[in-house]
Design a protein that fits this description.
single chain, alpha/beta, Rossmann fold, 4-stranded parallel beta sheet, 4 strands, about 15% strand, globular, binds iron/sulfur cluster
Amino acid sequence: MKPTTRIGIIICDRYRCCAGGKCLRAMRNREGAFSCYGDAEVELVGFTTCNGCPGGNVEYAGDEMVKNGAQVIHLATGLVVGYPPCRSIAAFKAYLEQRYGVAVVVGTHPIPKKYLDMHTRLGSWKSPSWEPLLAPIMCDAETRARYD
Ligand code: SF4
């Protein structure tokens, strides 16, 4: 029997009406940040938003997700591709890891082409600190186009 990893997903509240289609498709296809799971089973045990800047629900969502068995919490790709990208990604990651002892992955689905194009024009991700955050969700051009 394959091992099961239980995960939670926290999305940016700017996309609060999102039905999760891209995240769930990428989870099913093991694309973007979900590629790290390979053949392992993945069970989604929580999905919610940060509840708007400055992200107060991260505290409560983390607690509930971990109580529901989450071993990994994903900060959705929307935090990275929003205009502007969320300024609290590092703080959320550090808080969740230190408060709940859970692994935190930045990103879910592959970066859609239109967001890469616009952020490249804006220079949003020029700082080297973005490189490790972008790497798992950058994917190839064909994949990015499928997530537009
Ligand atoms: S920018 Fe960050 S803090 Fe603001 S709504 Fe989005 S995820 Fe939450």
